[in-house]
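Quick review question:
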């Protein structure tokens, strides 16, 4: 429980700092916008990295088993993401590109963070459904777990791949790591997926298995 408290604080701070780093112009104009998280602007990758660092520091000090603890936490991260994307839908942030599909959504509330009056991809629901699928896969993998760290890195692998795909339907992307091709988040997702694949192979070959 103590670990989860520090992870939560680190995730909020890290996700906000990542958003600020990706969109510095907004905060140069109005520095107080840094603390107005009710206006949107919490990037998962920033929170993930900050929570990972905080978790490593805490677990080392508390002498907790690293990968076993990570496996316990991994399914809960996905549930949190599922609920978080529903919150994004209600606020209108992380909105999708315009489309004419039957399941397109149109935001009408004047305080919505999404453009109003335009049919958009319900990207938030795409992400939420994806997280439910990942959660189901993790529960399945847990039944046949072969080594500590398998669940955590399976989560990172699945998330990195699926996020990079679903991100293509986003309509609010403002920064690109590869000129007009891949967003910063897509690039990080792809990198994390590759790291996860390597870690799974290394841990599978490790003699310290369950």
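Suggested answer, residue by residue:
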């Amino acid at each position: 429980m103590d670990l989860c408290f520090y992870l939560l604080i680190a995730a909020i701070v890290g996700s906000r700092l990542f958003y600020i780093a990706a969109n510095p112009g907004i905060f140069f104009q109005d520095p107080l916008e840094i603390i107005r998280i009710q206006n949107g602007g919490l990037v998962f990758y920033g929170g993930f990295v900050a929570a990972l660092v905080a978790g490593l520091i805490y677990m080392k000090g508390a002498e907790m088993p690293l990968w076993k603890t990570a496996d316990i936490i991994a399914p809960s991260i996905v549930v949190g993401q599922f609920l978080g994307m529903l919150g994004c839908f209600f606020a209108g942030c992380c909105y999708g590109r315009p489309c004419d599909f039957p399941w397109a959504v149109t935001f009408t509330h004047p305080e919505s963070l999404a453009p109003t009056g335009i049919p958009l991809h319900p990207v938030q629901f795409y992400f939420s459904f994806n997280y439910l699928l990942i959660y189901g896969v993790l529960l399945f993998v847990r039944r046949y777990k072969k080594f500590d760290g398998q669940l955590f890195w399976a989560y990172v692998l699945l998330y990195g791949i699926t996020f990079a795909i679903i991100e293509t339907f986003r309509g609010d992307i403002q920064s690109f790591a590869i000129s007009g091709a891949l967003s910063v988040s897509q690039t990080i997702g792809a990198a994390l997926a590759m790291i996860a694949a390597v870690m799974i192979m290394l841990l599978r070959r490790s003699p310290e298995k369950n």
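Why it works: The mean pLDDT is 87. The CA atoms of residues 126 and 166 lie 7 Å apart.
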